[in-house]
Amino acid sequence: MGDSDEAGGEVGGITVTIPPVQPASPKAAAGADAPLVEPDVLERVLRVAIRRGGHMAELFAEDRQTSGASMDDRKVEALSSGRDRGAGIRVVVGETTGFAHTADLSERSLLAAAEAAAAVAREGGGGVHLVALPARRPAGPGAAVLPSTVAKATKLELLARADEVARSAGGAISQVSASYGDARRRVLVASTEGVLAEDDQVRTRFSVQCVAAGDTGMQTGSEAVARTMGFELFDAADVGEIARTAAARALVKLSARPAPSGELPVVLAGGSGGILFHEACGHGLEADHIVKDASVYTGKVGELVASPLVTLVDDGTIAGEWGNFAVDDEGRPAARNVLIDHGVLTDYLWDWLRARQEGRASSGNGRRQSYRHLPMVRMTNTFLLPGAEDRHEIVAQTARGVYVAKLGGGQVNTATGDFVFGTTEAYLIENGTITEPLRDANLIGNGPETLLRIDAVADDFSMTPGTCGKDGQSVPVGCGQATLRVTGVTVGGTAA
Amino acid sequence: MTELTDLARAVVDRAQPGEGIEAYVSRGTDTQVRAYDGHVEQLTTASSAGIGIRVMVPASSGPGTQVGFAWAGTLEPGVVAQVLADARDNAAYATPDPHVALAEPDGVAPADLDLWDPAFSELSTDGKVQLALDLERAVRHADPRIRQVDSADYSDGTLEVGLASSTGILAASRRTSAFLSVSAIAGTGTDSQTGSGFSVGRAGAALDPGEAASAAVERAVRMVGAAKARSQRCTVVFDARVVSTLLGVVSAGLSGETVVKGRSFFAGREGEKVAASDVTLVDDPTDRRAYRASAFDAEGLACRRTVLIDAGALRGFVYDTVSARRAGAAPTGSAVRAGYASTPGAGCRALLLSPGRLDEPGVLAAVGEGLYVQSVTGVHSGVNPVSGDFSVGAVGLMVRTGALAEPVRELTVASTLQRMLQSVVYVGADVTWLPGTAAGQTLAVAEMQVSAA
């Protein structure tokens, strides 16, 4: 419950890869092709983890190198370089999971963590044997240009250009902050079920936030690009364009009127509008909420839960998207899962633990923030398939309502289904035309009710990156959709 | 002083001529138990440590100082050496800034806060498990309308910090904490409503599972049957927990860092009346009751009491070293950082509104008619501390003839932070210290727009 999310990859300060100038340990010296933990050590650690019994034991090792830079108030602030490595070991005995982690990948330390995690198995039970681990398949980095190979000065040029473009957008732009970050995350998962998988994830992001000042006070505007790829991100993404968009959002709101209050038709533009589905049903379809009867979607498979215009997909396989990976944090391959097919609920999202309880396979949605965290059911890239209508027509056929060009984030209570999502760029629709800009507001709806009220889906489509928070863990996700209309959502403005 | 300050000082001692270094070292342990349906669902035990290093060098040409930062989630000597090298390299790329500097000792003595409870280690793992199981059972059997206990958690931790810098800062601190939280679902038929409860202390033995359980049950059960309200403009009474969250957002604008960077609607308004006369807001991390109480700030200066709003008039802001220098103000010992992986910034730790005379029932009786908000959603997506625009999702109960009446859901409450501060009509006497940067207490705000079906 209370899962909360933010668009634009802004939360938590995603960071970046820095080159290992002088390898800090023999392990690091061995380079990226060497396993984080040697296969013979993996076997010995897993054997210790299930020595006292248990149904499954797993070792998750991670090596993350990050770096970030930001320019604020016209100054490049302290560049940041970070490194974090370690392993988490979990032992599952019946309905109980024991977990311990260590920042030390030596065999001695891993064995101690295995003993600690295995402590939950002291009552016995289980008695699983180690399935032989398959041969290693080292993963190469999913990046054409590793950010660690790019000069720091080159990254700073991006910041300077964004700052300059944003400030040139108008005299009312009073402050600009631009932020660059990249992260390389190597993971290894091995389990007593014979899983041995590796991944090498590279992510790069860039964001701009502007403040505009006028007679009515200050307003903010932001824009971000974030992809699961290396520095080649900037071959396609123009930081000047990102800066212009952020500045335009802040400027237009200087003349914005208060958002209306009450229930109105709402047209959501493609892209960040996907936050609607992330909140209205995405979290509610996560199997951990389902098996605890803590979701309004429990027991609804096979039922019509949305307008027939809605076909919703969660897909971790789409190269480059922010929620993309080769294997999830339980070593399962990323997958494409259809959740809602023409309005009918077809399936939930599953991790290993919840799938095991239901006697089925994981859907490749077991994710964790780091080796310090237990995996749980998470979305990847979640999106509505496009429809057939023209987006301009949808607006033209709306007599009075709100047009949301950009959403900033949202939150849902999966048990009640009530969810909110906040606008960061919105306009009034009057007589089929987009008119005056509106100040920021949250919109509130109930998931199952709102999904049934979708009466038009356009043929445009785009994705937007975000950071998804659940139970204290943040992971990168993508959201997407085409322009669509909901016949009624409560708009939380101040105008009566 | 401690092993950690020794390590921090060893790093600082490696400063090259002209260079300033600050090393922040922390080490902690964590235990978490989650109970579900009468059994232990998760048991996590862990320890972790890390270091964050800032290096400051005079600008290679011209005036000003350049700063670089690096961190690692380990204290392995070889890695620490690499972190120092990375921070030093990063410093070469920052824009020279005359205001960038390490904190200078200012002679203010740190408060004598004892935040390390010796009773902490007396509770065994079995005892912790039992607390979580007891909590879950207490909620599940409290009321026939409780249909599910989503999570019942015991968690505790220790944190030790050592900080040293080239300017002579040397600070050591340590703390224990323990926490119970529970989330309940109540309902009949297809109606589901939720409520949560918790108990906070510095040791497991100090926690009160009964208090956490009864709060979760009361909050979930009283929402059963909640319906949509009608849109209206009325006085809103915010629950103490909600107020703690909202003060946390307001405090972003009281950070000297946002003020000097032009991101606060309080900027340039010192001395002006920014709130109702009943509003006096103080940040005092030396108050031992505060969840984030601390003797030292994140740059090693003594934490101290700062008056921010006095009887409605804006009196000042909280500063870290850089923002204080930029503003030409005295440091207030208010540097905060999320941990070893982040650089310090200016922020509040322990906000408290001067209590009024009425407890929650008293405030409800005085308000008479309006809306009581039990919990809010979308604070991060609907409250903008730069513009002041305020719009949050809410559930709660209508207030009729001075008491709680029917439950309502799926509504929003909206205004601006500026207007809300001016429209405070009652500040509750019911101060509760909650996890976060502010105490909670009931607060009534007039003229809020409630939006519903």
Keywords, separated by commas or semicolons:
heterodimer; A: 496 residues; alpha+beta; PmbA/TldD fold; 2 domains; 7-stranded antiparallel sheet; 5-stranded mixed barrel; 11 helices; 23 strands; 39% strand; B: 453 residues; 6-stranded antiparallel sheet; 5-stranded mixed β-barrel; 21 strands; 21% helix
Care to give the gist of this entry?
The complex is a heterodimer of chains A (496) and B (453). Chain A is α+β, with helices and mostly antiparallel strands and 496 residues long.
Provide a descriptive summary of the structure in words.
With 496 residues, chain A is α+β, with helices and mostly antiparallel strands. In chain A, 19% of the residues lie in helices and 39% in strands. Chain A is built from eleven helices and 23 strands. In chain A, the strands form three sheets. In chain A, strands 2, 3, 4, 5, 6, 7 and 8 form a seven-stranded antiparallel β-sheet that branches. A five-stranded mixed barrel of chain A has the order 9-16-17-19-23. A two-stranded antiparallel ribbon of chain A has the order 13-14. In chain A, α2 packs parallel to α3 and α4 packs parallel to α6. Mean pLDDT of chain A is 91; it is low at 8-30. Helix content of chain B is 21%, strand content 37%. Chain B has ten helices and 21 strands. Chain B has helices spanning 3-12, 77-91, 125-140, 209-221, 240-250, 256-260, 321-327, 360-367, 379-382, 417-422, and strands at residues 20-36, 39-58, 65-72, 146-165, 170-186, 193-201, 227-228, 232-238, 281-283, 306-310, 313-314, 335-336, 345-346, 351-353, 370-377, 389-400, 403-416, 424-427, 432-433, 439-440, 443-451. In chain B, a hairpin with a 5-residue loop joins β19 (432-433) and β20 (439-440). At the A-B interface, β2, β3, β4, β5 and α4 of A face β2, β3, α2, β4 and α9 of B.
